[in-house]
């Protein structure tokens, strides 16, 4: 099993331009993500996929692997699909590692990669038991419902499932809710198929690309993690890292 780790990274960002190159405790964010990914025991290689020479220069400066990709991609999935074609090797699967999670755990990457020992798995991702009531109505916290096999049935920004006849303040007492952790793995042939799909109504409605895959009949297998991830989407998120004692 040969698995490639790809970290999509772009300089442009509506909320936080240039965030891959921000300094976090003496290292750029993209370097921290790369170094964490390199600790994974399941990845044969790790590459940053970018469309920006400034990011590419930073990767080269610390001796990392980088591949240049188009500046027209709409998602990290699309960038991964181009990158895997350019990186020499016969890759069975690709892990798409978020470039804005500087302290992602290598164990989480390994957990996701392990799914692909089953040749029937098409797409994989991680989920975590949701325990904070404020996350239920937080549109930035993705929720997911699962079938009995651990496949994602639906992902939403809204709290799902709806618990009829129970006050929302008690929902977590009455039912298990799952939070989606935004790291993906794809069998390589499936990845190329996904990028050829047109946008669907569900994806447009919720602005979640994984709904395009479900709408077209693909299955997304999940693995459970007990660990939270901390992403950097705005300058204010740096304070979260400080409060967590990470920097």
Question: How would you characterize the overall build of this protein?
Answer:
The radius of gyration is 18 Å and the shape is globular. Strand 8 (143-146) and strand 9 form a beta hairpin. It has 9 helices and 11 strands. It has a single domain (3-243), classed as Spore Coat Polysaccharide Biosynthesis Protein SpsA, Chain A (Alpha-Beta Complex), CATH 3.90.550.10. The protein has helices spanning 29-38, 53-61, 76-86, 106-114, 171-174, 188-194, 201-206, 210-215, 237-243, and strands spanning 3-9, 23-24, 27-28, 45-50, 66-68, 93-96, 123-129, 143-146, 152-156, 178-187, 220-224.
The CATH topology is given as Spore Coat Polysaccharide Biosynthesis Protein SpsA, Chain A
The Cα radius of gyration reads 18 Å
- What is the residue-mean pLDDT, rounded to a whole number? 94
Q: How would a textbook summarize the main sheet? A: 9 strands, mixed
User: What class, by secondary structure content?
Assistant: alpha/beta
Please report the first level of CATH classification, the CATH class. Alpha Beta
Order of helices and strands: EEEHEHEHEHEEEHEHHHEH
Assigned CATH architecture? Alpha-Beta Complex
Strand content: 15-25%
């Amino acid at each position: 099993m040969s698995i490639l780790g790809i970290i999509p990274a772009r300089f442009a960002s509506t909320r936080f331009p240039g965030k891959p190159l921000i300094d976090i405790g003496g290292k750029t964010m993209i370097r921290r993500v790369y170094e964490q990914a390199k600790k994974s025991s399941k990845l044969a290689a790790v590459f940053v996929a970018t469309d920006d020479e400034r990011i590419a220069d930073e990767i080269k400066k610390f001796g990392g692997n980088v591949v240049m990709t188009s500046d027209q991609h709409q998602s990290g999935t699309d960038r991964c699909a181009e990158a895997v074609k350019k990186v020499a090797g016969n890759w069975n699967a690709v892990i798409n590692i978020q470039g804005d999670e500087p302290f992602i755990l290598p164990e989480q990457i390994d957990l996701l990669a392990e799914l692909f020992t089953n040749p029937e798995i098409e797409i994989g991702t991680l989920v975590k038991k949701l325990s904070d009531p404020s996350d239920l109505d937080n549109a930035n916290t993705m929720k997911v419902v699962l079938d009995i096999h651990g496949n994602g049935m639906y992902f939403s920004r809204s709290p799902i499932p709806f618990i009829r006849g129970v006050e929302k303040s008690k929902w977590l007492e009455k039912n298990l809710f799952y939070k989606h952790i935004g790291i993906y793995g794809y069998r390589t042939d499936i990845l190329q198929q996904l990028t050829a799909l047109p946008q669907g109504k569900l994806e447009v409605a919720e602005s979640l690309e994984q709904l395009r895959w479900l709408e077209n009949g693909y299955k997304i297998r999940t693995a459970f993690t007990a660990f939270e991830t901390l992403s950097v989407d705005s300058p204010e998120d740096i304070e979260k890292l400080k409060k967590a004692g990470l920097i």
